[in-house]
Amino acid sequence: MRSVDVHPEEVITTRDFPVHNAEVLERYSAMLRDGDDQGIPPVPLVEVELFLPHFDEPEITLLREFLIEHPDVKYFLLNGSHRTTAANLTRRAIRAVVLEALGDIVTARRMTFNGVPYEHGLLDTIDANIRDLVVHFRGTKAFQTVQEKTAKMVEERAIPARALGLSRLAAGLLDIGEDIN
């Protein structure tokens, strides 16, 4: 398992749009703004090349075209859409671990942050995680980087003002929508 700091244009993110829990996004964004990035678990990544043999047509063609248009992409995100979005919103590198061997999953399962076990959502093998994500992308019309998904969320006003570090007043003045709660 390699620890890496990656940029949002290097990672293909999951299809969930927008992220499912605004409060979690707000919490991670606040932690990153306050400099508490060590309290946020790294996201698990797998190198793109490992996915290529698992996709069927038309996803494989779509992915190959995407990779030509996005030459910086190196990884697929297995879990951690809230963390990657928060890192991008706060202009921080994305803290990650690249899973390369079965032992990496065992190691990830033993990790704790602030005394709490790492909620990794990982399956038992790297191959099982790849197959699970391939099913997640079945029928997709497009792949997106973390950068593209975050930009779309901002454009569609799908991000609460607090996740952007704004008050309700500032959000109203900028016409980006109300804060949640």
Task: Please provide a written account of the structure.
This protein has 181 residues and is α/β, with parallel strands linked by helices. It has seven helices and seven strands. It has a five-stranded mixed β-sheet. A two-stranded antiparallel sheet has the order 6-7. It is globular and about 45 Å long.
What's this model, at a glance?
By secondary structure, the protein is an alpha/beta fold. The chain contains seven helices and seven strands.
The global form is globular
- Which class do the helix and strand fractions yield? alpha/beta
- Tell me the quaternary state: single chain
The tally of helices reads: 7
SSE arrangement, N to C: EEHEHEHEHEEHHH
Could you name the ranges where pLDDT drops below 50 across 5 or more consecutive residues?
A: 166-181
The share of residues in extended strands comes to 5-15%
Beta strands, count: 7
Our Rg estimate from Cα atoms comes to 17 Å
Mean pLDDT: 82
Separation of termini?
Answer: 39 Å
Helix content: 25-40%
Strand order of the largest sheet: 1-5-3-4-2
Main beta-sheet strand count, sense and barrel state: 5 strands, mixed
